[in-house]
Design goal:
Length: 223
């Protein structure tokens, strides 16, 4: 009798079978595990991004201090990465984060950056706790969310510099002569950050920044 009892408990009833089948169907529903790809203006193509980290070690070359953290091409992977890394406001002075389209390195010498420039946001020391993390996240969302409409193709990436004198955030574009794209990007970017209209932000070419003689670079455009 004991043996028969054990055997009978191993055979599921019809109700249990139906419950298992319903559970299995619930587990394999496609919407439960399919990730949402980041798309560029050509909706048939996925847009892949790369996040880089720079730590200023003076015993190494500039390029040796730059390392790739991760690449992603879905909404879920973006948030997983963002929630895993250190907040910008907690980084040591001299560190940078850079988010660029896959295939473009975060340096002036890259072919896509060579003739480009950047919209630059400069923050005071007091803004690090109040605005830095919010501004940087909004900048990332502008990039991965194609916030600049048809002119998003002109965007190469973005860089945040954490510095003792004051932090900087910039959006890099590929051609400093493309006035239509640059002015549109600047206007939308300023609105997304919630920068007051009376506060001016400037766009500078990388060439001018690299050859500047003083502490400031002349703006080619303002927003």
């Amino acid at each position: 009798m004991a043996t028969a009892l054990v055997v009978s408990t191993l055979i599921p009833s019809n109700a249990e079978k139906e419950k298992c089948e319903a559970t299995s169907q619930k587990i394999v529903r496609p919407e439960a595990y399919i990730k949402h790809p980041l798309q560029n203006n050509d909706s048939s193509l996925n847009c892949r991004w790369a996040l880089w980290f720079f730590k200023n070690d003076k015993s190494k070359t500039w390029q040796a201090n730059l390392r790739l953290i991760s690449k992603f091409d879905t909404v879920e992977d973006f948030w997983a990465l963002y929630n895993h890394i250190q907040l910008s406001s907690n980084l040591m002075s001299g560190c940078d984060y850079s988010l660029f389209k896959d295939g473009i390195e975060p340096m002036w010498e890259d072919e896509r950056n060579r003739r480009g420039g950047r919209w630059l946001i400069t923050l005071s020391k007091q803004q690090r706790r109040a605005d830095l993390d919010r501004f940087w996240l909004e900048t990332l969302l502008c990039l991965v969310g194609e916030a600049f409409d048809d002119h998003s193709d002109d965007v190469c990436g973005s860089v945040i510099n954490v510095r003792a004198k004051g932090d900087k955030i910039a959006i890099w574009t590929t051609d400093y002569e493309n006035k239509e794209a640059i002015t549109h990007i600047g206007r939308v970017y300023k609105e997304r950050l919630g920068v007051p209209p009376k506060v001016i932000i400037g766009y500078q070419s990388h060439a001018d920044t690299a050859t500047k003689s003083g502490s400031t670079t002349k703006n080619k455009f303002v927003a």
